[in-house]
Amino acid sequence: MGADEVGGQPPQQHTIARRTVLRGLGAGALATGMGGILAACGSSLKGSGGSSSSGTINIGFVTPLTGPLAGFASGDQFVLSQIRATSAYKNGFKVGGKTYKVNIIVKDSQSSPNTAAQVAGQLILNNHVDMVLTTSTPETTNPVAAECEKQGTPCVSTVVPWESWYAGLGGNPVKPTTTFEYCTTFFFGLKEFQECFVPMWNRVPNNHEVACMYPNDADGNAFRFGFEPLIKASGYKVVDGGAYPDGQTDYSTMISLFKSKQCEVYSNCPLPPDFITFWRQASQQGFKPKIATVAKVLLFPADTVALGALVNNIATDSWWGPYMPYSSSLDGVTAKALADAYQAKTGNQWVQSIGSSYALFEVAKEAFGAVSDPHDKKEVAGALHHVNYSGMNGPINFAAGPAPGVGIVKPVGVQWKRSTGKYPFEMVVVDNSLNPGVPLGGKLEPTNA
Q1: Is 2 exposed, middle or buried (CB count within 10 Å of its CB: 0-12, 13-18, 19+)?
Q2: Are 184 and 158 in contact (CB under 8 A)?
Q3: Which of these ranges, 210-224, 327-341, 384-398, 399-413, has the smallest mean pLDDT?
Q4: How many whole angstroms separate alpha carbon 268 and alpha carbon 211?
Q5: Burial of 181 (0-12, 13-18, 19+ CB in 10 A)
């Protein structure tokens, strides 16, 4: 394979390997801030000189192109084609009075934390990358970030709740004072989920009983110990279905609990295949909440296919879409134009992850443009922590987030509704409480309407 090809192992479906690095992200990590990942990093060569003195900037990109999380990466090959066509990436970056070619090296995490860590190590030690970009859930981003922090390589993550990312590096999201020297992230967190979901709950008359489907994994534990207090603070009661294992196939006990408590609101953050199984069983067993707000699932059109009509009016968060009033900092293309180009080129419905993946490469350009030597990893990492710009995913400021190195983007509330166009269902903005600059596209309706 060439340097620009997908590296790693053959593309094939893998179940997510449970790994100690992710098991540590539950109550202990959130309560004490000790995820344990960095404990063995004392002997790493942090802050060593640049990867090379060459005239090429090497950027690694780790994303789950295959496996159960592949839906998150379904637009990444398109994004890479768009990025490589911009003048900045085609003609090179001007850094310290010199123009450097830019080489993007793509690695598939295969939706496996073990593989994500392995390919990050390969990028650093074998490909001598100057920066690693990574996206799509803690199962990919956390092992990559941990490896980069250990090896002293600048890293930018996205599409991971910042609390999951921060705890994954050994920080305490409750008291986020630790600065990770080489790692940054942009996305949003539990507070933004609250500010996106609760306004929708409040607009649908209900009994304030919330069914919570949170698995025993990084995101599930973050929601259990971070989001459930926010649910209570919003005037709602929590009915926790229990910390079930990823890949569970029978949710009858959980559904019975939700029904017995007459839960009329539903909240979750499971793996996409697990939600499909749960929602089908819920329908069969008569659990039909008035408003369902889901996280980590139903973020992309392909996720709706398996559920068909059962997906109608399920609500989720949207951090990017053609309705966003944003444009590229690289070439000025608008969010709508990027979504339209994706549909024209692939024949598929747009996916919101193309906005965040695109922004990763904007952030890289911003950081490299602020240093004198792109191969000085300490200098590049320092520049990353001060990136403050507006681009395809909106304004991002790593110095103004809830924790050092965290940039917050503002999502809107959307519902999946039947489409009158080419595609059977589409995301419709029904609540812009957190991001009023985004126009509403339709009316919020009960999930079981």
Answers
A1: exposed
A2: no
A3: 210-224
A4: 8
A5: middle
- Can you tell me the distance from the alpha carbon of 26 to that of 133, in angstroms, rounded to the nearest whole number? 25
Tokens of 230: 């926010």
Answer yes or no: same fold for 6-188+322-408 and 191-318+411-431. yes
User: Could you report the per-residue pLDDT of 138-152, keeping only the tens digit for each?
Assistant: 999 999 999 999 999
Residue 316 φ/ψ, nearest 5 degrees: -150, -175
44 close to 86: Cβ distance less than 8 angstroms: no
Q: Which residues does residue 95 pair with via DSSP β-bridges, in sequence order?
A: 98
**Predicted confidence (pLDDT) per residue in 321-336, tens digit:** 999 999 999 999 999 9
User: Is residue 1 within 8 Å of residue 96, measured between CB atoms?
Assistant: no
Fold annotation for 191-318+411-431: Rossmann fold (3.40.50)
Assigned fold of 6-188+322-408:
Rossmann fold (3.40.50)
Whether pLDDT at 202 is above 90: yes
Q: What is the DSSP string of 278-298?
A: HHHHHHHTT---SEEEESSSS
Structure token digits, residue 59:
């950027």
